[in-house]
């Protein structure tokens, strides 16, 4: 079980696949080359043997035709037999001389002399053809060459010379060459396998270093950035890993800060309520007006606590349902008018003048609840953080083109310093904490607004000058983008 547990990961590893690839890349070409050489050698050797035997057979046939061997004269038979003996000895073969009547006049084995022989090669030889065949099963080459009377002007064929030569020595040489080739292939495989192991170890080492480095970063042993510079790929992986770790650290710091802010924001109203309650309990016989004042303060703190909790729940709900918007076709002109009607009492209380301007009818595919929450936060902030001397105003405009609709919320309120603009969407961030606490701000409104707009694949921009006013520009696609 333990052996298999270690073997299976190795078989799936890059190192094993590199070794296997290197071996296959070396072995396959080697085997193909070896097989090609052996096949080429055998074909070439047979071709040479056939050419040599054919040449010698033609010479012998001419000698037989020039002599009186075919007429049965013994005066030249000794010379012809000597030539035949030399040919059969050199090529380990057998020679048959067949006359025009298909009778065997001479057989080096003396087995078929006087017999009539009818075979394809003899018949074709009697027709004047030179016939050659190779018997791969019995390992011999057979040739038939016509014997032509040189004294006859009509080239009369007086017989056929049939030569059979063995190719055993060629096969022996091929077998020997095969053995040598097998040894070479085994040596090549062994050498390439050894080289493949060394090369794979060298190639995989940077990835092992990369894995160890990541493990060290995870365990906290390395505080700096991870960098393995062996390959371009490892450099890119390290860069992506470092970027990911940087984002994770930022997210972790943000999470810790968020938890700390939540704890502080929730604890502050509770602390205030406890102080107020302890004060009431410590007063004996305090007048009713004082009790009512303290209870009013406690009620305000409870409302503040409730608002913080509701805003937190809105953020959590948006995070969980980012991919599940309840999209429908909404008439944005009517929606913004309804929002401004609901906020009009707050504007009246702050003595802020609300103005809406619609350039054209706009209908868009949005989640009505979330868009309402986003626009409400922008307009409500513009009202609350404004002048309360009757000179304050909030201007809301709606426009659209063929692709987007645009909402602009502009005010002439207290504005924000430039260094605060990049932080205003952070949760619990406040430009002026004391003023925010006075008007009941939680520091979550703009975070909720940006989340809602981002879920619709939209964008929000802000321009503000301290004591001059603030302008928020919102752009959202008319058609929801999945």
Detail the topology: elements first, then pairings.
Elements: H1 2-11, H2 14-66, H3 77-91, E1 93-99, E2 104-107, H4 120-126, E3 131-135, E4 140-148, E5 157-166, H5 168-219, H6 232-282, H7 288-320, E6 327-331, H8 332-350, E7 352-358, E8 363-367, H9 368-384, E9 392-400, E10 404-411, H10 433-439, H11 445-455, E11 459-465, E12 469-477
Parallel strand pairs: 7-9
Antiparallel strand pairs: 1-2, 1-5, 3-4, 4-5, 6-8, 9-10, 10-12, 11-12
Helix pairs in contact: 2-3, 2-5, 6-7, 7-11, 8-9, 9-11
Features:
single chain, five-stranded antiparallel beta sheet, five-stranded mixed beta sheet
What is the topology, as strand order, of the major beta sheet? 2-1-5-4-3
Q: Encode the helix/strand succession as letters.
A: HHHEEHEEEHHHEHEEHEEHHEE
Largest sheet: 5 strands, antiparallel
What's the mean pLDDT score?
80
- The proportion of residues in beta strands is 15-25%
Terminal residue distance = 49 Å
Number of strands: 12
Helix content: 55-70%
Rounded to an integer in angstroms, the radius of gyration calculated over CA atoms is 52 Å
What class, by secondary structure content?
A: alpha+beta
Uncertain segments are none
Question: Which term fits the overall shape?
Answer: rod-shaped
Give the number of helices.
11
């Amino acid at each position: 079980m333990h052996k298999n547990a270690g073997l299976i990961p190795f078989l799936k590893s890059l190192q094993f696949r590199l070794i296997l690839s290197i071996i296959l890349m070396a072995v396959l070409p080697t085997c193909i080359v070896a097989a090609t050489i052996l096949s080429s050698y055998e074909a070439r050797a047979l071709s040479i043997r056939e050419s040599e035997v054919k040449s010698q057979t033609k010479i012998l046939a001419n000698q037989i035709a020039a002599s009186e061997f075919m007429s049965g004269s013994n005066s030249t038979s000794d010379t012809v037999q000597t030539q035949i003996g030399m040919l059969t000895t050199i090529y380990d073969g057998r020679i048959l001389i067949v006359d025009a009547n298909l009778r065997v006049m001479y057989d080096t084995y003396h087995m078929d002399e006087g017999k009539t022989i009818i075979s394809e090669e003899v018949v074709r030889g009697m027709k004047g053809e030179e016939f050659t065949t190779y018997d791969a099963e019995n390992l011999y080459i057979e040739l038939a060459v016509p014997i032509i009377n040189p004294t006859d002007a009509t080239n009369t064929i007086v017989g056929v010379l049939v030569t059979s030569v063995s190719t055993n020595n060629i096969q022996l040489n091929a077998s020997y060459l095969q053995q040598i080739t097998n040894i070479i292939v085994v040596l090549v495989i062994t050498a390439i396998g050894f080289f493949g192991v060394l090369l794979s170890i060298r190639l995989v080492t940077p990835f092992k270093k990369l894995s160890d480095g990541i493990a060290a970063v995870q365990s906290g042993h390395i505080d700096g950035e991870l960098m393995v510079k062996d390959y371009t790929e490892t450099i890119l992986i390290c860069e992506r890993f470092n970027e990911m770790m940087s984002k994770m650290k930022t997210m972790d710091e943000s999470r810790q800060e968020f938890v700390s802010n939540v704890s502080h924001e929730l604890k502050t109203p509770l602390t205030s309520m406890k102080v107020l309650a302890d004060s009431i309990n410590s007063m004996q016989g305090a007048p009713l007006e004082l009790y009512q004042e303290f209870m009013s303060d406690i009620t305000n703190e409870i409302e503040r606590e409730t608002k913080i909790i509701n805003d937190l729940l809105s953020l959590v709900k948006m995070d969980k349902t980012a991919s599940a918007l309840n999209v429908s076709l909404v008439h944005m002109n009517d929606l913004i008018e309804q929002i401004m009607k609901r906020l009009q009492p707050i504007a009246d209380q702050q003595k802020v003048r609300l103005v809406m301007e619609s350039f054209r009818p706009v209908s868009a595919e949005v989640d009505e609840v979330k868009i309402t929450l986003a626009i409400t936060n922008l307009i409500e902030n513009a009202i609350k953080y404004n002048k309360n001397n009757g000179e304050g105003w909030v201007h809301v405009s709606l426009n659209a083109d063929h692709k987007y609709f645009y909402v602009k919320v502009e005010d002439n309120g207290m504005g924000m310093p430039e260094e605060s603009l990049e932080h205003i969407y952070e949760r619990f961030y406040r430009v002026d904490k004391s003023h925010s606490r006075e008007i009941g701000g939680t520091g979550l409104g703009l975070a909720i607004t940006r989340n809602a707009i981002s879920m619709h694949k939209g964008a929000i921009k802000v321009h503000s000058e301290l004591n001059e006013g603030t302008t928020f520009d919102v752009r959202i696609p008319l058609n929801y983008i999945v």
